[in-house]
């Protein structure tokens, strides 16, 4: 509405935290709730069960976070998404570490 104050929680001034809150987090959560990517054979009815999706902030000032979908079928179906990674050495190292830990499981980089 026009009467919202500057600094209101619903404002989108273009900062990283607002972009994460309004675009990055909802997109990553929606993707992870829908994706099923088991690395081993599972029954079709087991694949339909929704995963448990969690988010962990990495740095509080840049909107970066690691989202994890824990599959109902077990760790072989888990998926992770790194939201708002950039070319900072920290993120390059994080991407390599997470990718190695995930092995054949799906790992997404999300930057809406």
Please give the structural blueprint.
Blueprint: H1 16-34, H2 44-47, E1 52-57, E2 65-70, E3 79-83, H3 89-102, E4 107-110
**Helical run tally:** 3
What is the helical fraction, as a range of percent? 25-40%
The proportion of residues in beta strands is 15-25%
**From the helix content, strand content and strand pairing, which structural class follows?**
alpha+beta
Low-confidence residue ranges: 1-5
Shape: globular
How would you explain this protein's 3D organization?
It is a single chain. The chain starts with 15 loop residues before the first helix and ends with a strand. It has 112 residues and is α+β, with helices and mostly antiparallel strands. It contains 3 helices and 4 strands. Helices cover 33% and strands 19% of the residues.
Characteristic key phrases:
single chain; 112 residues; disordered N terminus; 33% helix; alpha+beta; 4 strands
Give a brief rundown of this model.
With 112 residues, the protein is an alpha+beta fold.
């Amino acid at each position: 509405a026009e009467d919202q104050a500057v600094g209101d929680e619903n404002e989108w001034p273009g900062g990283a935290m607002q972009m994460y809150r309004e675009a990055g987090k909802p997109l990553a959560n929606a993707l992870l709730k829908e994706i099923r990517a088991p690395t081993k054979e599972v029954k079709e009815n087991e694949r339909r069960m929704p995963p448990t999706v969690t988010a962990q902030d990495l740095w509080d000032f840049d909107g970066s976070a690691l989202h994890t979908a824990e599959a109902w079928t077990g760790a072989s179906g888990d998926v992770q998404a790194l939201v708002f990674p950039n070319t900072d050495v920290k993120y390059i190292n994080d991407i390599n570490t997470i990718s190695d830990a995930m092995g054949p499981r799906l790992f997404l980089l999300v930057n809406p």
